[in-house]
Amino acid sequence: MTSRIIRWLLASGVLLACLAVSAGIQAQTDDQVLLEVQALLVSPNAPDKTVAIERLAQADHPRALEIYALLLDSKLYFNRADDFLYVIDNVVEGAPALALLSQETSLIERRRDYRRVAINNAQRTQIRRVMAQTGLNHERMEVRVGAVQQLMGDLDQDALTLIREAYVSETHGRVRDLMAVALAIDTLTSGDEAAQRDAISVLGGSLEPRGRVALVRYVEATDQPRLKTLAEQALVGIDQQVRFYKGLETVFFGLSMGSVLVLAAIGLAITFGVMGVINMAHGELIMIGAYTTFVIQQLMPNHIGLSVLVAVPAAFIVSGLVGIAIERGVIRFLYGRPLETLLATFGVSLVLQQAVRSIFSPLNRSVQTPEWMSGMLHFNPVFAVTWNRLYIILFCLMVFFLLLLILKRTALGLQVRAVSQNRAMARAMGVRSERVDMMTFGLGSGVAGIAGVALSQLTNVGPNLGQAYIIDSFMVVVFGGVGNIWGTLVAGMTLGVANKLMEPWAGAVLAKILVLVFIILFIQKRPRGLFPQRGRAAEG
Amino acid sequence: MSQSLLEEVKNRDQVFSFLRPAEQPALNVDKQILLYLEGLSVSFDGFQAINDLNLYVRDGELRCIIGPNGAGKTTMMDIITGKTRPDSGSAWFGQTINLLDLDEPAIAQAGIGRKFQKPTVFEFLSVWENLELSMPSPRAVFSVLRAKLDGEQRDRIEEVLTLIALQEQRESRAGSLSHGQKQWLEIGMLLMQQPRLLLVDEPVAGMTHQEMDRTAELLISLAGRHSVVVVEHDMDFVRQLAGRDRTVTVLHQGSVLAEGSMEQVQNDRRVIEVYLGE
Amino acid sequence: MLWKLIREDRGGQILLAMLLLAIIAVPLLNGLPSDHPLHIPTYTVALLGKYLTLALLALSVDLVWGYLGILTLGHGAFFALGGYVMGMYLMRQIGERGVYGHPELPDFMVFLSYDSLPWYWLGFDSFWFTVIMVMLVPGVLAFVFGALAFRSRVSGVYLSIITQALTFALMLAFFRNEMGFGGNNGLTDFKDILGFSLQSRETRLGLFIASAVALMLGYLLSRYIIQSRLGRVCVAVRDAESRARFLGYRVENVKLWVFTLSAMMAGVAGALYVPQVGIINPNEFSPLNSIEVVVWVAVGGRATLYGAVVGALLINYAKTWFTTELPEVWLFALGAIFILVTLLLPRGVTGLLRRKEAV
Q1: Chain C residues lying within 8 Å of A265, measured CB to CB
Q2: Cβ partners under 8 Å of residue B155, min gap 6
Q3: In angstroms, how far is the first alpha carbon of chain B from the final one?
Q4: A193-239 pLDDT, tens digit each
Q5: What b/e readout covers A132-143, taking b as 16+ CB neighbours within 10 angstroms?
Q6: In whole angstroms, what is the distance from residue C127 CA to residue C121 CA?
């Protein structure tokens, strides 16, 4: 620990005088440091502030980064009466002021009492440098990466020295690679021919955008034809890889969009596909699932991560029950009359929408994303995927296979298939078709609720959430072939990827229109979808 | 499809085929055979519904077709009337009309009428209107829009009404008729259509014995002017229809098992095995 | 000749008589001094005119749903297209009076820095061209869509869903600025029609009368069709499609022509609607609108023609009342109507009035 501190001090070019007190600083508590820093920052002398910035760094103070950020954002003020530091967003009378040390909030009585802690440009540079330095040695890998990237934006000798120092002790491959790229960028302009050759090969093996920019500049500037060719080849290689990863990214986006479609449609694939019931309120069942997530988060505000997990079964039950109520109350009287079912369930959808508007207000509600779902998974500098999209894909596949299992392996599934293929015969065999209808509809509706949980993590939760998905869901089911759950999966994924493939040149809206038109034409050509059910039973 | 269309357009010494009105060649029964089914096969999801079926129906003949469930009787009718496309084989109406080239309305207009297993009439229309729509007259949308009944046509409808004994119910909705009356109405509609070939699928289901006798009488009287193909389960009825010398065809597993007079068929060992021997 | 069409149609006789009466009475009552108890204010005239155009739309839906069994969830698209065609004419009529004062380009085009009119805006300065297009544009779309759909025998629920997809796709398309139809905002700020100011009392009355006449003509035309043998073929197709085929009727052609005609009627309704409400925007394509029309027909009584008119007037009056008095309750009410009518009143309110017929 001590050796690390010493290294920082050397690297940042601090006066040796500070070295003498470093041992003492360690002994001091964090609060003492903070008091000292407060006194220094409140001082009208600019050099005192420089010392304060330094002190925070030396002490490896847990709140150092926070205070630096406040200084850079000019949000740190001091009260002229008590000489304490306050965090203030907006200096107006009546606005809150948060005491930096005690963390107590008071209200601003008079604007004149507060003065901003102003810093000059040299100090800003100093803060950035210290932040990078702290960052380079931070225990979390992501922070170290961020620090290197920040330094790469303004590579001067100091920055290079810092990186070189840190490179020696760095153990994580990704951070090392990034550092190597940073050093190579420098070598490209400063090193001898052999070093430049090495640098080109380092940069050629990396996808870091800044490395590519450096290579492009090098190609323009260099007068050594052999190295120039080498650099150009490296660039071609990089561009090829970038294109490949862009393609991969598109496919990934497509799959995640497809997963959303499949999730939204799969409940419908059961109610429409297996039971032949047109449920126009399907979208609203999704919406109810999303609102269930919202309510559960309100109930357990301190456990956001857990709340989403709780919401999955809860939404299944709530939407499932609503679905059963719809089946018992409306649809059961309309079996065999699909067009009437369509109209009646559309009425149900209007009622549900308005009910949600009356209960929760017509405004969108925001559902929080748990920490384990936010952030990104980095594969390399040009290809990173957000965790929530990745989870959606996995979640979709999970739900799909679970459903498949239920339909293929359980007694309920067997009865469902029996009733859907020949109701009269199934009844004759002792299947209680009414109960099966109810359970099937409940299952499809419950799955819609689960889709709502997933959607609440991607879009705003509002009364119109369901409407936005109902047409898409029908398209997916019809495209895939009614009565075929696998078809729904393939159709959803295909449409998702097709949409994302078209988006770059057509734009999101036009891509969607084109997909719709395509499906309309497709249904004309193959009215029974991609994977039709064939045979005499399907002819009727 | 697009390839052939392109060739069409390039071929400049002829009017494009899609601009030519679709003409049907006239029916030709020089060889006394009205219906040729040769080598027909069709399967649904691996189930071979029709398997190398060969069947010839003479002009003016009354032919009974029997067979156990799943023998392919209804599928065969579906192929003849254009509802189902066979995987292979050919179906000709007379020597000139290829049925596989035509769709259901065209086949109907060429002169093939069909009665379904379950009586299907237009339930919301009156008996009179049901018969009116069955009349052979131009079927193009605008001709239908301006069509009026002339005296001769009225007489014809009256005639059929008498024949099927529904004069009293002429203004009733077809939906309000009894099951047997619907069967009769459907037969009446077929008669109105004046087809050359009648396909009749289980005509006496749900009829009383008296009605059955009348139906048999009617069908027999039709033979000669029309060819009639009757698919039936009811053995008594088939015996009644086939008499001594009419041909009966036994279908089994999608192909013809035996053919001959009722007597021959009844004594055929294979037939007894699969069907009559139960 | 005309009398023959409605001789056996009691509801139709009453309806046409009422419309005739309205054509005479409404202008008279509107002309009364404004403090007179029977005075009809001009904005009410416009409102009544709007209802009549919606009734024409309902009529067109009843023709295909009631008699052909095609549950169209996209007729709003044809209505909106007719409306857009009329809107284009009205935009061209504004001339130099727009905010930007451009002699030829509508305001939104100046705003989006167009150099000249897009080709598909040409010709809409002529009223007669517009009248033709009002019927042609929805007609051609319906013809192409119908030719594809009916030929491949898409029917029942599938057809309903793709008609819904059609209007949804059109809505998305018209929301795009690049389409050249004013995007989000649509077409509005109209000034006059055939040289008459849209704000004036006389023009309002004229539009009201035109709507009433269009509804009467639409009614008689529909009646002509369903009275003919074609009408009986329609019912035959609705109830037993394959039977009709085996009788030699080309079901797809019957559906195609009636569907196209119905779309043209919807287009005319839209064209009369737009000058009376003063705006047309992509929301008119919203699938909800199209489904609502179906409910008007269901409420009035499917397959009666006059029932569609009654349903449209009833529900739209209720909508106007609710949205001013109890806006939160309207969707509950509409939803309840959807459910109750399908469950309890399959023959609509006019079915209650008619004597029980043998089913």
Answers
A1: none
A2: none
A3: 51
A4: 888 888 888 888 888 888 888 888 888 877 788 888 888 888 898 89
A5: bbbbbbeeeeeb
A6: 13
B47 to A534: CB separation less than 8 angstroms, yes or no = no
- CATH of the domain spanning B30-276, picked from 3.40.50.300, 3.30.9.10, 3.40.50.720, 3.40.50.1010: 3.40.50.300
| Side-chain half-sphere CA neighbours of B83 within 13 A | 20
Q: How far apart are CA B114 and CA C239, in angstroms?
A: 17
| pLDDT tier for residue C21 given thresholds of 50, 70 and 90 | very high
Residues in chain B with CB shorter than 8 Å from the CB of A536 are: 44, 49, 75
* Rg (chain B; Cα; Å): 20
Residue pLDDT, tens place only, A36-83: 888 888 887 888 888 888 888 777 777 777 888 888 888 888 888 888
pLDDT score of A114 more than 50: yes
Better-scored residue on pLDDT, C280 or A26: C280
Nearest to C62 by CA among C221, C214, C271: C221
- Residue C342 lies inside a defined structural domain of this protein: yes
Structural domain includes residue C184: yes
Measuring CA to CA, which residue among B129, B83, C253, C149 is closest to residue A525?
C149
How far away is chain B from the Cα of A400, in angstroms, using its nearest Cα?
Answer: 25
Strand partners, B197: B112, B227
Helix (H) or strand (E) holding C263: helix C251-277
State yes or no: pLDDT of C334 exceeds 80: yes
Nearest to B134 among C238, C240, C247 (CB): C247
Cα–Cα distance, C70 to C162 (Å, whole number) = 12
ipTM value for the complex: 0.88
Query: What tokens does B112 get?
Result: 């093939």
Q: Which domain holds residue C222?
A: 2-353
Is the model's pLDDT at A538 over the cut of 80?
no
H-only helix segments in chain B: 2-10, 73-80, 104-110, 127-134, 141-146, 151-163, 179-193, 209-222, 235-242, 262-267, 269-271
The domain limits of chain A are: 138-222, 245-485
Exposed e or buried b for every residue in B197-234, given b needs 16+ CB within 10 A?
bbbbbbbbbebeeebbebbbebbbebbeebbbbbbbeb
Q: How many helices (H) and strands (E) does chain C have?
A: 15, 4
- Assign B41 a pLDDT band (cuts: 50, 70, 90): very high
At C235-272, the pLDDT tens digits run: 999 999 989 999 999 999 999 999 999 999 999 999 99
Average pLDDT in chain A: 83
> If DSSP codes are grouped into helix, strand and coil, which group holds residue C98?
coil
Buried (b) or exposed (e) across C46-57, using 16+ Cβ within 10 A? Answer: bbbbbbbbbbbb
How much of chain C exceeds pLDDT 90, in percent?
Answer: 70
Structure tokens at A500: 């994302």
Q: What is the 3-state secondary structure (H, E, C) of A287-340?
A: HHHHHHHHHHHHHCCCCHHHHHHHHHHHHHHHHHHHHHHHHHHCHHHHCCCHHH
Cβ contact A469:A264 at 8 Å: yes
B67 in contact with C, Cβ within 8 Å: no
Q: What is the pTM of this model?
A: 0.83
3-state secondary structure of C256: helix
d(CA C84, CA C81): 5
Q: Does the beta-carbon distance from B141 to C257 stay under 8 Å?
A: yes
Nearest-CA distance A530 → chain C (Å): 14
Q: What total number of domains does chain C contain?
A: 1
The amino acid that residue C254 corresponds to is V
In-domain check, residue C358: no
Our CA-based measurement puts residue C249 at a distance from the nearest CA of chain A, in whole angstroms, of 20
Task: Give mean pLDDT, residues A255-272.
Answer: 91
